[in-house]
Design goal:
Strand order of the largest sheet: 1-2-5-3-4-14
Low-confidence stretches: 130-134, 329-338, 344-366
Largest sheet: 6 strands, antiparallel
Radius of gyration: 21 Å
Shape: globular
Order of helices and strands: EHHHEHHHHEEHHEEEHEEEEHEEHE
Mean pLDDT: 85
Helix content: 25-40%
Structural class: alpha+beta
Number of strands: 14
Length: about 375
């Protein structure tokens, strides 16, 4: 740890969630459990607290919040409230000592990767993301394809300010959580130049069947599924025998990849459009990881994964996030009706996510993710 501002995943150990936030703590725990997580580090809540104190940001935000009538809940008023507060935070620069420490860690990550300006994902790691009675999942900002030290420090500040998105302000008021926000961690995770990526469920996401693992994936970054750009391939694995029992391959016309200008949409080569984005061995290995996660956390898990095209199997498979499966139907019918409903559910979720992400991207530009 460097002056309490930065801690590497492998150093987190038993550090409490209130020092690094839920996302960083979860990734560190996964690494300690022997799961394949990319290299990275956490920006601690100590850094946030020093930033808002030394720059005077906390005082300015508090003065503004005190001037707002408590019953003001019109959406246009909340949007203006969000804009003003985020502008206050985003206009500040990191204290010099903190900036140097963060940049030195990023340069160390680049040296370990053997490349300059290694792309990283910069993700908000809020303290309330994993609380039993509240969930800020998806409400704070994250950024993909962040390259170079200047881009990194800018995105860290923007993650901090995302405590004050309109949706986060609204949620805090609904749940009677203090409106002024709280200290926040930030996750800096080396990006995998994904050949393919997607999600996996350690139980059937619709039927609740605990004997099945379901994977969904596509070529390129997993955001192509989140944004509804393509219908994903689906793989169903029987847990006890670790046998791939069903494989549904879609026609995947587009993919998302990262480049110098940000996240780019590309056409899938004709010979890959109807080809499986995972080999059978890769699908089974991912199913094994899903079971390992479920066993470790004692509850069904929803994981995100990526496959590196430059590494041999199984070192090419990485996990980049896991969370509890929060909504699982208890239907036990595994017939055609259930499969149809899965397809319908996936299409609906993709459309909702695409609408939300398109709206947020208008503010942040290329490389933004939620």
């Amino acid at each position: 740890m460097k002056d309490n501002f930065v801690v590497w995943f492998h150093e987190i150990g038993e550090i409490s969630v209130d020092r690094v936030g839920g996302k960083s703590a979860k990734l560190a725990e996964m690494r300690h459990a022997g799961l394949p997580v990319p290299n990275g580090f956490a920006i601690t809540t100590d850094a946030y607290n020093r930033f808002v104190k030394e720059t005077g940001t906390a005082a300015r935000v508090n003065r503004y919040m005190e001037s707002i009538p408590p019953d003001r809940n019109d959406i246009s008023d909340l949007q203006e409230e969000s804009r003003v507060i985020r502008d206050i935070i985003d206009s500040q620069t990191l204290p010099d000592v903190m900036r140097r420490y963060i940049i030195s860690c990023y340069e160390e990550l680049c040296r370990a990767a053997g490349a300059e300006n290694v792309p990283v994902a910069v993700r908000s790691s809020g303290l309330s993301e994993d609380l039993k009675d509240s969930s800020f999942a998806g409400q704070y900002d994250s950024f993909l394809n962040v390259r170079g030290p200047e881009d990194l420090v800018e995105k860290i500040v923007q993650c901090w300010s995302s405590q004050f998105t309109t949706r986060a302000i609204t949620y805090r008021r609904k749940m009677n959580i203090p409106a002024e926000g709280s200290a926040m961690g930030v996750t800096v995770l080396q990006m995998i130049h994904a050949r393919s990526a997607g999600v996996g469920f350690s139980v059937h996401p619709l039927t609740g069947d605990p004997s099945k693992v379901v994977l969904e994936g596509s070529w390129g970054l997993g955001e192509s599924i989140v944004q509804g750009l393509v219908a994903p391939d689906r793989f169903v694995i029987e847990k006890e025998s670790m046998t791939l029992i069903k494989k549904s391959i879609s026609d995947k016309e587009k993919l998302l990849d990262y480049g110098p200008s940000g996240i780019e949409e590309k056409s899938v080569p004709a010979d890959k459009r109807k080809a499986a984005c995972l080999s059978d061995m890769e699908a089974i290995k991912l199913a094994e990881y899903a079971v390992q996660l479920e066993t470790h956390y004692g509850a069904p898990q929803d994981m995100e994964w990526a496959v590196d095209p430059d590494l041999p199997f199984p070192a090419n498979i990485f996990l980049v996030q896991t969370r509890p499966v929060t909504v699982v139907s208890r239907k036990k019918n595994e017939g055609e009706k259930a499969d149809y409903l899965v397809d319908l559910m996936v299409q609906m979720v993709q459309q909702v996510r695409k609408t939300a992400i398109d709206s947020s991207k208008r503010r942040a530009g290329p490389g933004k993710a939620t």
